[in-house]
Amino acid sequence: MDASSPTAISPKEMRRVVAATTIGTAIEWYDYFLYAAVAGLVFNQVMFSPLTGSLASIVSFASVGLSFLFRPLGAFLAGYYGDRYGRRIVLMVTLFSMGGATTLIGLLPTYETVGLWAPIMLIFLRIIQGVSAGGEWGSAVLLAVEHAPNHKRGLYGAGPQIGVPIGLLMSSGVLAIMDRIAPGDAFFQWGWRVPFLLSFVLVVVGYLVRIGVDESPVFEVIEDNKGHQRPNPIGVLFKQHLPLVFVAALVFAGNGAVGYMTAGGYIQSYATNPEGPISFERSDVLNAVTLSAVTWLIFTLFAGWVSDYIGRRRTYLIGFVVQAIGAGILFPLVDTASLGLLYVALIFLTVGLGLTYGAQSAMYAELYPASIRASGVSVSYAIGSILGGAFAPMIAASLVDATGTTVAVTIYLVAASLIGLTAILLLQERKGIPLSPDFETEQSKSPFVFGK
């Protein structure tokens, strides 16, 4: 460990922390992405059945985006309690709330059975998922990064980051399996429910993995020395660091808008729509998304690792260029109706997504002072989620409905990538800055390239 680290962490404990944050985050995002995929494949027909055609898909995707509006609530709560009472306790609460909501979705009646109550209950449970997602990420990444040695923050911080593509991989994979077990109408009748009910088992696994993890060493120093603790971390964050929160949010928004073409279920819906310009088999598209999740995972881990050598900023700059190219060719390739080119488009896209995602844990943690770090990381991520991924599938569906082509969607996605690129250009490289609360004066210096 470097001199700035509060305590030395044994390799065994470090492996336990990485396992807990990675597995727990994967379970959380399995739940979250499962909803998004099923929204485009099933919910538009069984929960919003009075609506017809593209309107049903737009409303169904709106229910995906609605949960993002509640992420800041989860981020505010998690940031406050994470800065005041520790990162670990927040992770246990979010695990149970997300898993409970997901399991209950698998038990919901459809519109045909109970009418309007079906979408109302569905949206309520989706809101709980949103609050949980808003609280999960910040605490998970800080537990990983604040345990890590100075020269490996990017690598260990990539642990909870790869939990996201693992969640997409698991959700797409389970849906693909269920599509084979319950093909055709059986998938709409009961097949879609099984992946939601499996969440109960995953929550138990997540609990057993997380229960034995120690609290962040940075927070232990804060707790031992109450002079490091802020009574109102959220207030300090917005009073002293509001421009940073906004710019950091734009960095993630540039990734999120593009990532939610697959993670948000839009590609799955667009490419399987029998009334659209192309109509692949549902299993073929789910298999392509599953394979692209593997690419996303690999390059997310690579980006975290390489950022420890070339820096977070340079890693992001390369990533956003690659992502912009991937966003530019995505729909032109998908619209060829070639299954092979669908695979190429999704795989290339996820290379850029990984490169703009793997270093995020370390980069965010290094931006904020220790006493308000949980609040800063959580709130920046939640706002970035709203600006980027929240309504990206709905926006894409609306643009295609209004114009009849995917050209406007391509422009939208490339523009999002360029916004992320611009935001990262505004920030200095902060790799290796001490994270201990003993170095808060250094941490509080402006991270902007035009700062002092």
Automatic annotation (TrEMBL):
Compartments reported by the entry: Cell membrane
TM segment ranges: 32-52, 58-82, 89-111, 155-178, 190-209, 244-265, 285-304, 316-334, 340-359, 379-400, 406-427
Chief localisation class: membrane
InterPro entries, per the entry: MFS (IPR011701), MFS_dom (IPR020846), MFS_sugar_transport-like (IPR005828), MFS_trans_sf (IPR036259), Sugar_transporter_CS (IPR005829)
CDD domains per the UniProt record, alphabetical: MFS_ShiA_like (cd17369)
Residue ranges constituting the Major facilitator superfamily (MFS) profile domain according to the UniProt record: 17-432
Domain of life: Bacteria
Keywords: Cell membrane, Membrane, Transmembrane, Transmembrane helix, Transport
Signal peptide: none
Topology of this chain in the membrane: Multi-pass membrane protein
Protein name, UniProt field: MFS transporter
Organism in which the protein naturally occurs: Corynebacterium yonathiae
